[in-house]
Amino acid sequence: MQLVKTSQFLRTQKFITKKHIPSQNDIDKTLKLFTSDPHNKSLHYKKMNCKKDKNRYSIRILNTQYRILLNIEDDTAYLICVCSHDD
Fold this sequence. Notes:
Layout: E1 2-5, H1 7-18, H2 24-36, E2 46-47, E3 56-60, E4 66-73, E5 76-84
Parallel strand pairs: 1-5
Antiparallel strand pairs: 2-3, 3-4, 4-5
C-alpha cells in the first residue's frame, strides 16, 4: 500500500511531535507496520463513521493514545492528520 502525506498531516504531525508524545520515531514505526500489515491488532485499524467521507479510517500510533486518520482509495492511503483519541 502506498502512503501519501497530506499538508494537513505534516502540519499536525509537526505540532504533536513538538510535545514529544508521540515521537517522530513512534509515528514512523506505526506507518511502517501499517504498510507491511494493515490489519495488525496493535494498530486498532478501523473504519470510522463520517458523513463527509465514507472512506475514513483510523489507526493507533503504537503505545500511545494518538490516532492517525486516513482515507483509503484503491491501493493508496492518504494520511489526513494526527490527533488525540479524544479529538
